[in-house]
Amino acid sequence: MPYSTKKLLTRFLKWRYRNISNRTFIQIMSLIVGFLAGSVAVTLKNSTYFIESLLKKGIVFSENQLYFILPTIGLTLIYLYVKFVHKEPLQHAVSSIIFSLSKKRGLLRLKDIYTPLITAPLTVGFGGSVGLLGPAVKSGSAVSSNLSRFFHIDAKTRTLLVACASAGAIASIFQSPIAAIIFAVEIFTLDLTMMSMLPLLLASISGVLTSYFFLGNEILFSFSLSEGFKLEDTAFYILLGVGTGFASIYFTKMYFAILSLFKKLKSPKYKLLVGGIAIGAMLYAIPPLYGEGFGFINNLLEGDHLKALGTTPFDDYTHNIWVVIALLFGITIFKAIAMTTTIGAGGAGGVFIPTMVMGSALGNVVAKVINNLGLGFSVSESNFTLIGMAGLIAGVIHAPLTAIFLIAEITGGYQLFVPLMITAAISYLITKNALDYTIYTKELAKIGALLSHNKDQMVLGLMEMDDVIEKNFRPVLPQMTLGEMLHQSVSKSKRNLFPVLDDDKKLIGIIVLDDIRPMMFDTDLYDTVFVKNLMHAPPEVIFYETDNMKQVMKKFQDSGAWNLPVIKNGKYEGFISKSKMLTAYRRKLINYSQ
Questions:
Q1: What residues does 470 pair with on adjacent strands?
Q2: Which residues belong to any copy of the CBS domain (predicted)?
């Protein structure tokens, strides 16, 4: 930062501390963050639609054969950007934000602002079957994080402003401010108090207004309810809840299964080639898999399933409703595959909108099956399409309240609130009992970086091992005599514990002062007793790379020890004491609860 700019910032900060309260400043910042996140979302949408509009004529002219090469072209462009500009693998948007909040005090890099703005439009515009919501949230959160760092905002407030950015981005994309607030609370596990509610509300409003300012009255779903909830349809909504629950399990398992297959392909070039060809083949057979899929959803809501399906190799058979049902069910199956293949091949995008597409297809399938069984039942296909989306959102990302309020706001009212609650609750319960973690959180849970609404788990997740490791223990060598140990280590240490290390600084045992107390004053033993004869194994060992703070706490509990050694990269690093860990826990809890 230039000296003049730094001086000007210092003067501003001094003026702000004197004249603007911290609460007011946070509220002002939340409005700014909401506007910036909304602008990011609008930029992403417009740049993606621009690319799609350029390619649309070519797709029609080639009779869909262009689908075979477009994904490969898009993935190649992203590969070149990552190799020569970004210079590191792309990360999952929401997961990386949660990791940042948990382990990096909410700090995101500057390149996290512009990288999603480049890679996501290239992915989706060239046919990648992913959504723009995740990249919009990532870019907006990075803007918020860097703005917070620029104004010297503390880590806790920075976390709140990152959540505000996510709310602003979602509110801008869906024009649903309430669902945006709830998403921030459910996904980023905020405590919903008036201190956090007002900034989230301001950011959400700011994001919505930004969308209206740049896009006017253009909305994603041009749909209004014609039929409300009917009591006699309750059993069918329960059935839909069960169906979306199992579909959510399929979606999640398929995601991790395909990603594991792509991990076996070591070269990014092979990944993009295999992924590009696979996506192209799926797009040719099932055109609605192209891009985000909002057009597909809108066509289903309007009751035009033929337009939703587009031109397919099965057009000669779509006069048969059961063929249509089979094709829609195929979209339900292949949307998860196409989405994960896009991400595994090196594309950038989110999973939220693909869950909506899959849910809409499944809901429409269920309604069509009910209406065409010949049993005299008749349900609203558009209502089931909407509620299917809620079921998948609730199940896949474990956010039932977000699902309920999002669909309620999309429909412009709460006429479907009861069936939304039924389906979302059932889907969430089934998926939650079958899968402990979501697409966002599974990998984070393995490294102890998972945020939780459980305050105890949350505080442990926010603690850093480096903050509690103590290194003022004097090591001893196994070949040292008792006399050497007493003169060189014990007499010069304030601790009653001594790690025994070999020549490579690897821990081979420990000695506690109580072990040598009976012989400390027996000088006859000074030259005949060696450290290797006195040392013993520690009751438990903490591994720096693999153990999280929850596991560390459990090791203290199970071993009953007061101090445990830490091993880092195979070598001795220091000790963690129970007293220091509990003190750090208490301080973190107080700070988190305020």
A1: 575
A2: 469-528, 535-593
Q: Give the pTM.
A: 0.79
User: Across-strand partners of 530?
Assistant: 481
How buried is residue 492: exposed, middle or buried, by Cβ count under 10 Å (0-12/13-18/19+)? Answer: exposed
Residue holding tokens 């091993």? Answer: 567
Geometric angle at alpha carbon 341, from 112 and 394, rounded to 5°: 75
pLDDT tens by residue, 431-450? 999 998 888 887 776 666 55
Residue linked to tokens 């005949």: 528
Task: Please answer whether residues 527 and 486 qualify as being in contact, where contact means their C-beta atoms are separated by less than 8 angstroms.
Answer: no
SS3 label, residue 427: helix
CA 252 to chain centre: 13
Tally of CB atoms within 10 A around 241: 26
Q: Enter the DSSP assignment of 69.
A: T
β-strands 469-470, 497-501: how paired? unpaired
Please give the pLDDT value at position 60. Answer: 73
pLDDT at 547: 85
Q: Determine contact, residues 490/513, Cβ cutoff 8 Å.
A: yes
DSSP state of 524: G
CA 504 to mean position of chain CA atoms: 40
Which residue type sits at 459? V
Give, in order, the Cα–Cα distances in Å from 405 to each of 131, 162, 255, 350.
Answer: 20, 21, 26, 20
- CB-based contacts of 78: which residues, under 8 Å, 6+ apart? 90, 119, 122, 123, 272, 346, 347, 348
